Every structure is written in structure tokens, then in C-alpha cells.
Amino acid sequence: ESKRLKNSAHLFRDAMQENYLRNVNIEQALRGAIENHELHMVYQPQVSTDGSFYGVEALIRWTNPRLGSIPPDAFIPIAEESGQMPTLGRYIIETTFADIQQIQHSLGISFSTSINLSARQLLEPDFATYFINKMQQENIEGVWLTLEITESLLIEDTSSVLPLLHAIKNKGVQLSMDDFGTGYSSLSMLRMLPIDELKIDKSFIDAALTSKNAQQMAQSIVTIGKNLEMDVVAEGIETKEQLEMLTRFGCDRFQGYYFARPMDKDALIRYVKGTFFP
Ligand code: C2E
Ligand code: CA
Ligand code: CA
Ligand code: CA
């Protein structure tokens, strides 16, 4: 018995060590990722209730020759902890701006683009100035931009973040609360921040068809959003049944594999042309 325990302790330690080493590897490889052109952005369509194309969410992708493809969930936190988020964040914004200019030009339409912001980016004192300058340089109007933030922001000092958010919002940019319902203090956060859009977390959408409880949660989130005059977006829609349920609840927009996976800019151009303007 004690030998078994010892073995499992070893296994645990080995797993910890392996995980630690992997994180160190990721941290180091990430330092060269931009220069080595290992990163790119992909875009996942958002569809309105009437079935029309609304816009996209920009998501980052990283493939390293040695480590393979690393999901953003794995490397964004490491980028934050190792002080690489300012550089990575700028790469995300500048690449997305350049890509969407090209996509919109090619399609001959303007559409909304959502960019994920890490809480760390908002703590950079010159972030608002930087973002607004980039918008102007690239000639992108605020009405076509949404910034997605998460509740982790609340852990940080909101008093410094508020003026920054207002400065950006004054340029017409919308603010979206991502993964709504998964963190804590969601409601106080909604009261404090100038939010335009709620994104219902995928976990509620996943469970909504099988759990009465999750279904009621999803419905309540839509009601909260509507009462606060926000748009409500359901993400992670994978089935027709989910789409029908969330439509019934009153969601304004949908995103998920049921419609399309995230795709690179050329694939997005083909997809939008083929699906919405055939
Ligand atoms: P998120 O912001 O909640 O993004 C939605 C995630 O759900 C994306 O995963 C997307 O590919 C995935 N997804 C969308 N529809 C479906 C579906 O129908 N089924 C399933 N199973 N998944 C779906 P991804 O791209 O791996 O990103 C994971 C997380 O990493 C994001 O969650 C976000 O928190 C973070 N992230 C990704 N790109 C960026 C970025 O450019 N900046 C920042 N700060 N974070 C990012
Ligand atoms: Ca998001
Ligand atoms: Ca989300
Ligand atoms: Ca998420």
C-alpha cells in the first residue's frame, strides 16, 4: 500500500515537473514566435437571428516547429505571466486590423470584428492611446470594433481601467463581457463597466439541452442582458436544437461550429461569399 502511495507520489511529481518544463518551453518558444512568423489570426463568423452575416471574432493560433500547435488557452496565461502580453497583444491588434481591412476590401462590405483582450493589456497605462491611434492609422471606425473582456478584470483594479474603457468607447467601440456566468461577481461587474454585449459561456449552451438547470441559467442570462439593454450572443452553438432554444430565449447573435469554425482570412472570404452572397 505504502509503495503504491509512493509510486503515485512519484507519478504526481513527474507530472508536475513535466508540466513545469512544458510551460518553460512554451514561454521560451513564445519569445521568438512573432519574429519567426509562427502566429496568425483566425476568424469565426457571427450570425444574426435573421441568418445574415454579422461579423467575426478574431482568435489567435500558434504553431511551433518543435512544440507543434499550442492552443491559446495554454499560451495566453503564460504570455501574461512572463511579461509578453504587451507585445503579443499588439501583434493581435495589428494583425487583425490589417487582415480585416483586406477581407472587407475583398468582400466590398464592412462588418463587425471582436478582439479578445487580456486583463493585462488593459493595465498598460498607454493602451487606450495606442488602440485609438492604431484605429486612426488603419482607418477603422469604432462602430465596427468590439473588445471582449472577461470577469478576471475584476480581480484587478477597476478604477484604473474605467477611464481607459470610456476613452475607447468614446470612439464608438463596443465592449463585450465574454464567458458570462462562469466567473464570480458577474452582476456587480455589469453594473460597474460600460458593457454593450454579453456572451453566454459555452458551458451553459452545452448543458442547456440536457439540464433544466443550465437551460434556466442560459435563459436568465439572456433576460439580464435584455433588461440592461445589452445585446446577447450565444457562443459554442453546435446543433440546430441549441440554435432553436437560444433563439427562443431571445439571443441576438450566434457563433459556433454549427455555422462555421474559426478560419484564416482567405477561407473567411470564400466562406462569406459562398454562404451569404452566393
Ligand atoms: P473564447 O474567447 O471564449 O473563444 C471561444 C473559443 O471557443 C475559441 O477557442 C473557439 O474556437 C471555440 N469555439 C467556438 N465555437 C465552438 C463550438 O461550437 N464548439 C467548440 N467546442 N468550441 C468552439 P480557441 O480559439 O481555442 O480560444 C480559446 C480561448 O483562448 C478563448 O476563449 C480566449 O479566452 C483565448 N484567446 C484566443 N484568442 C485570443 C486572443 O487573440 N487574445 C486573447 N487575449 N485571448 C485569446
Ligand atoms: Ca472571446
Ligand atoms: Ca467566450
Ligand atoms: Ca473561454
Automatic annotation (TrEMBL):
Keywords: Membrane, Transmembrane, Transmembrane helix. GO terms for molecular function: cyclic-guanylate-specific phosphodiesterase activity. Coiled coil: none annotated. The keyword Membrane applies. Residues 23-276 form the EAL domain. The keyword Transmembrane helix applies. This is Bacteriophytochrome cph2. It comes from Nitrincola nitratireducens. The gene is cph2_1.
